[in-house]
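Handout, section 4.2: multi-component inputs.
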Amino acid sequence: MKTVTLQVQGMSCQHCVHSIESALKEIGAAGKVDLASNAVEVSFDENRLSLEQIKAAIEEQGYDVV
Amino acid sequence: MKTVTLQVQGMSCQHCVHSIESALKEIGAAGKVDLASNAVEVSFDENRLSLEQIKAAIEEQGYDVV
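Output:
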């Protein structure tokens, strides 16, 4: 299990938190959004997922990973 | 048909727009959110709905009508 913290732009409310956390859950990762710091902490199995897939899941929801 | 424009706090993104517009539609009103001006323009039938019901529908979504 690996944990990374990504900086993500455009997250503004609890709906955004839900969208991102749900999208990560869907691909088998566990995400925790902190709106105040524009951060998403993601835990995932490196043998099953890549960081690129994590970023893509977030970007598909309409947010920019910086 | 009556149209009022309400000032609403806490609307920050397209998810918020969707929540509010859907909630208004559900009670039989038509809402149009303008994020830039924190405004919600609502058209409704005065014989079927009151302004209080309109405000309650918005507040139930977690936003403050000011």
